[in-house]
Amino acid sequence: MNQGEGEKEVQFYEWRPPHDDADSAPRMVIWLMSRFGKLIKTRKQAYLTLLALSIIGLIVSALILWSASKKNAPSPKALRDPEHGLPALD
């Protein structure tokens, strides 16, 4: 193949993910790895630990809200028959 004077050779570059530095990690991950270095050795373990703690926190919050709403709900009999006695509003 002959290249003309106006043609340029096309170069292709392989995409590579960014370099994985400890400095590029979020501060919470760095803190977790430094504080619990014997248990959490890699960034992936730190991310999974934070994810697990978030899920546990959401579940506990949902259970607390659910149990609080059950305690304050009027009885089914009071909802069917208002004269039976709905709680009075102050």
Description:
The protein is elongated. The chain has helices at 27-35, 43-72, 76-80, 82-85. The protein has a domain at 27-72. It contains four helices and no strands. The termini are far apart. It is mostly helical. The model has no long low-confidence stretch (mean pLDDT 80). Helix 1 (27-35) crosses helix 2 (43-72).
Helix content: 40-55%
Class of secondary structure makeup: mainly alpha
Radius of gyration: 30 Å
Helix count, DSSP H or I runs of 4 or more residues? 4
Q: Please, what is the average pLDDT?
A: 80
| Low-confidence blocks of residues | none
Largest sheet: none
Distance between the termini: 92 Å
Shape: elongated
Strand content: under 5%
Q: H/E order of the elements? A: HHHH
How many individual β-strands? 0
Keywords:
single chain; 90 residues; mainly alpha; 4 helices; 53% helix; 0% strand
Draw up the topology in text.
Layout: H1 27-35, H2 43-72, H3 76-80, H4 82-85
Helix pairs in contact: 1-2
What's the short version?
The protein contains four helices and no strands. It is an all-alpha fold.
